[in-house]
Predict the 3D structure of the following.
Amino acid sequence: MTTREVEHEITVSAPAQAVYRLIAEVRNWPRIFPPTIYVDEVEQDGNTERIRIWATANGEAKNWTSRRVLDPGALRITFRQEVTAPPVAAMGGTWIIEPVSDTESRVRLLHDYRAVDDDPGGLAWIDEAVDRNSRSELAALKGNVEHAHASEDLTFSFEDTVRINGSAKDVYDFVNDAHLWPERLPHVATVHLTEDAPGLQTLEMDTRAKDGSTHTTKSYRVCFPHHRIAYKQVTLPALMVLHTGYWTFTEDTDGVSASSQHTVVLNTQNIARVLGPDATVEDAKDYVRAALSTNSRATLGHAKDHAEGKR
């Protein structure tokens, strides 16, 4: 069996500990890897974990499962794909983050792999794919980690919750069935919803603002019946460079807690154009939070009426 080992590296303008944390904490991945929609921690045992990743590839959403071992002391993360696709017989590797200075670090990405039946043509195909993907992934990682580190103060999260005297399934169904929103939600004008694989949705919709204008958004959604729907918005309004979130539905003896959570990174370049020359970062945060909360609370309110009406 021929096992190939290759290495790629890049230098990043951010401290090693910060880079390690951004890669180690999978909730950051939608921020630092543009194709990543959502990552779910399936199992965790100490520093060993199994993660399921949803990401786009050539415009299509896919998912797979990997095992990782985290070593925060050495700033190393090893990973191994659980299920490989031909011509790959085995694939794994290691992230190694090394401090260059207090503000700079070197990121090394190691891969080891084998081809099915040791086929030379298959191995050449994997060589090329790993080289191309590693170079583009490291370049994207550099830009996005530097941006994420620099924009910590531009990143904020918030959540709205309502209590509902109904079942989690009925509330979940209301949010899941987004194709019915134009009939059910006054702020939604049109919806185009596709579900190419069970639980993996592409949602495009036109939303009405208070002033009567409409804006178009596109999101990928990952649905976990009947307790969570996670999403990443890929067409963004002018004041955001990132918008991810999730809906959660937690049932107890008295009903359901339904929540809408948002994480946003502001686009500071557009603040003056959208809000005027005197507007501050705090003004932009307040504006974005109010706009997103208004729509979330409206949706949760209609979901509440729907679920309580079914009781």
Observations:
- The two ends are 62 Å apart (CA to CA).
- The chain has a mean pLDDT of 93.
